[in-house]
Specification:
This protein has helices at 13-21, 47-56, 85-93, 119-150, 156-171, 183-189, 217-229, 238-244, 249-259, 265-277, 301-308, 310-314, 324-330, 333-338, and strands at residues 2-6, 38-43, 60-62, 65-70, 97-103, 200-205, 232-236, 279-285, 289-296, 316-323, 343-345, 355-361. The protein has 363 residues and is of the alpha/beta class. Strand 8 and strand 9 (289-296) form a beta hairpin. The radius of gyration is 23 Å and the shape is flat. 36% of the residues are buried.
Length: 363
């Protein structure tokens, strides 16, 4: 999973990126201090994997990972090249989803490119640039498709209709993700890499002193916008995340307890990102390795096996599955098997989050 962190300059993107990846990206109080995108790979926190490691004491421990890309601050006119905009926009196209950091605090000591914090205006500024960038690409795609159609390729008519539908919506200032597509149309959109079609997780960045009571008007504004478009929202304080990033696990938990919050912003972001992209994890466990594997919700057992190795999918015989909670209640795989809690599942079995699996195959 690759998440692109976007937003206006000085909204807390690089501070947040530093906190969650400990990568030490430059974070300064002026626009465009991030020129090249910073990339950090973060392990997905998963308590289930930790518990399995306690049981098996494996040689290797491999959590799922998320790649975060800190993309420089976009400004009005980015789609026309303002602030190195085209370069930054191309970086976003390579991501699976967008984490849009929105400034939800006032601070005269931190410069805002528009003079003051205004979440609705700031979100609209970014949205417009993403839409305009997509519009330029789609207008060119329409022209190319029309030429093919004039050349006698009648199969292109349905494709052209789909592209013109997208252009019409973008021209009205609507993001591509708000368009309703038929199944056939979704096939035409698969390779377009439209930025405004990517799922969005809004990250409402609040002040440190608001963390105990994040019920503030700025946050409500972000939540209302997200609800209208079916996007996700997490509320974080980038400064607090920065402090948490410098602590070991024991001190981190004490700090969270003192603040009265259950989990760090990173945990909330990853959980929300999984939900947004429709992802789940299945687990494999043994003395050699315990590991989490990320798959799309709805994936069948052979395709899940293929995540481990193509031979597993090609020669799939069955999946021996036990629910994580059942395994933990029994204390071991053999004990779960004796109680009849290990199921033998075939090719049509749809994987569930937290399934602990042994795949049987023959090639």
């Amino acid at each position: 999973m690759k998440l692109g962190i976007v937003g206006l300059p000085n909204v807390g993107k690089s501070t947040l990126f530093n906190a969650i990846t400990r990568a030490g990206a430059e974070a300064a109080n002026y626009p465009f201090c991030t020129i090249e995108p910073n990339v950090g790979v973060v392990s997905v926190p998963d308590e289930r994997l930790d518990k399995l490691a306690e049981i098996y004491n494996p040689e290797k421990y491999t959590p799922a990972v998320v790649e975060f890309v800190d993309i420089a601050g976009l400004v009005a006119g980015a789609s026309k090249g303002e602030g190195l905009g085209n370069k930054f926009l191309s970086n976003i196209r390579e991501c699976d989803a967008i984490v849009h950091v929105v400034r939800c605090f006032d601070d005269p000591n931190v410069i805002h490119v528009s003079g003051s914090a205004d979440p609705a205006r700031d979100i609209e500024t970014i949205d417009i640039e993403l839409i305009l960038s997509d519009l330029e690409i789609m207008e060119k795609r329409v022209e190319r498709t029309k030429k093919l159609l004039r050349g006698g390729d009648k199969k292109m008519q349905a494709e052209l209709d789909c592209y013109e539908k997208i252009v019409a919506a973008l021209a009205e200032g609507k993001s591509a993700r708000t368009i309703e597509f038929t199944e056939d149309e979704l096939e035409f959109t698969a390779d377009l890499q439209l930025i405004s079609m990517k799922p969005v997780l809004y990250c409402a960045n609040i002040a440190e002193d608001s963390i105990k009571n994040p019920d503030i008007p700025y946050v409500h504004t972000v939540e209302e916008i997200a609800k209208k478009e079916g996007s996700g929202v997490v509320v974080i304080s980038a400064k607090i995340e920065e402090e948490l990033g410098q602590l070991d696990s024991e001190d981190r938990q004490m700090f969270l307890d003192d603040l009265g919050i259950e989990s760090a912003g990173l945990d909330k972001m990853i959980k929300a990102s999984y939900a947004l992209l429709g992802l789940i994890s299945f687990l494999t466990a043994g003395p050699k390795e315990v590991r989490a594997w990320t798959i799309k919700n709805g994936t069948k057992a052979p395709q899940a096996a293929g995540k481990i190795h193509s031979d597993f999918e090609r020669g799939f015989i069955r999946a021996e599955v036990v629910a994580y909670d059942d395994l933990m209640a029994c204390g071991s795989y053999n004990a779960a098997k004796e109680k009849g809690l290990v199921r033998s599942e075939g090719k049509e079995y749809v994987m569930h989050d937290g399934d602990v699996v042994v795949f049987r195959f023959n090639v």
